[in-house]
Amino acid sequence: MSLRIGLVVPPPLPANLDLRHAEIAERQGYDSIWVGEHIAGHVPTLDALTVLSAFAARTSRIGLGTAIVLLPLKTPASVAKAASTVDVISGGRLTLGVGVGGEIPKEFEVSGVPIGERGARADEAIEILRKLWRAPGATHKGRFHQFADIDMQPRPVRAGGVPIVIGGRSEGALRRAALLGDGYMGLFYTPERYAEAIGKIERYATEGGRSLQSFERLMYQYVFVAPTRPQAFERANVFLSHTHGISFEKHIDRFCAIGTVRECVESLGGYLAAGVEHLMLVPTVLDAREFAEQAEVCADEIVPELRRRGQVA
After folding, report:
1. What is the pairing mode between strands 216-225 and 183-187?
2. In the chain, what percentage of residues exceed pLDDT 70?
3. Which of 86, 110, 117, 173 is such that its CA lies 20 to 30 A from the CA of 100?
4. Mean pLDDT on 194-202
């Protein structure tokens, strides 16, 4: 699989989003554009699939993805309907990135979902999504949801439904990706830890008798390009501390590609060597102007070198 490179619209940017960024990202040659969400996070966010429907209407080629939807907080039927709608509008360009969350308990409180059930609810929801997308007369009898003879139309453009990519770092997330996902999205990994996670996924898949032949390996990676590394470090620290509500100063050097173009390329190149097939660049910015600047410098100076390295690998 050839290297794909995506651009993530970082929180809190969706709250004052310029929809032209999707068109610009497409012209700049990115393979995909991604949007995340929270029900009640540390910073404002919009509903990811709603934003992607607007992106779909303004673009024609670029892939669209959620990074991520917290699946336990929503009914599977509503997610299935919204995702199939975006997929139809976009002509089959959607990837549904999902996770279970848990770091913000208030989201579960307001959604009426016990936080301890999040993993089991996500597993069952993935099964329901595929049933509703793939055939008429869908029937399900599970722990949380029961229904019979449901025909949800229109179904997604692709016969197998929208690809589902699993995000998360826990053993449960890795097992879920191996047994239920069409791909895995890593976050806050060094290249070495990412390779270890993929190794675990492959082992879980083998034990479960599942082939990962068409499985996609993605990485959600923070990046900031600046004339000097100290300048980039400061911008990344401001962004991550603001969006996550805790200090990230001790973790930036391990988990972020920051500094000059050369330094960023070297850092990101390590993930290609670790097996990443779809690298999702997340500029650590807080406003739309800076997002546009970082997207441009990455497209012009970083992405071409990464594609060259990906071809060599």
Report:
1. parallel
2. 98
3. 86
4. 98
d(CA 293, CA 134): 41
Mapped onto helix, strand or coil, the DSSP state of residue 218 is strand
Do 182 and 163 form a contact (C-beta atoms < 8 A)? yes
Instruction: Give the Cα separation of 257 and 281 in Å (integer).
Output: 9
pTM: 0.96
Q: Can you list the domains of the chain with their CATH numbers?
A: 4-312 (3.20.20.30)
DSSP for residue 113:
-
Q: CA angle, 254 as apex, 288 and 300 as ends, to 5°?
A: 40
How does DSSP classify residue 251? T
* Distance in angstroms between the alpha carbons of the first and the last residue of the chain: 11
| Bridge partners of residue 259, in order along the sequence | 225
Please give the angle made by the CA atoms of 218, 79 and 34, to the nearest 5 degrees. 35
Cβ contact 35:6 at 8 Å: no
pLDDT given for residue 167 in this prediction: 98
The SS3 call for residue 228 is coil
Burial 88-125 (b: 16+ CB within 10 A, else e): bbbeebbbbbbbbbbebeebbeebebeeeebbbbbbbb
How many angstroms separate the CA atoms of 256 and 220, rounded? 10
Q: Which two tokens stand for residue 255?
A: 């988990």
Instruction: Using the CB atoms, write b or e for 48-77: b if 16+ within 10 Å.
Output: bbebbbbbbeebeebbbbbbbbbbbbbebb
CA 267 remoteness from chain centre:
20
Mean of pLDDT values over 140-149: 98
In DSSP terms, which residues pair with 279 in a beta bridge? 5, 219
Residue 283 buriedness (CB in 10 A; 0-12 / 13-18 / 19+)? buried
- The token pair that represents 292 in the structure block: 């546009």
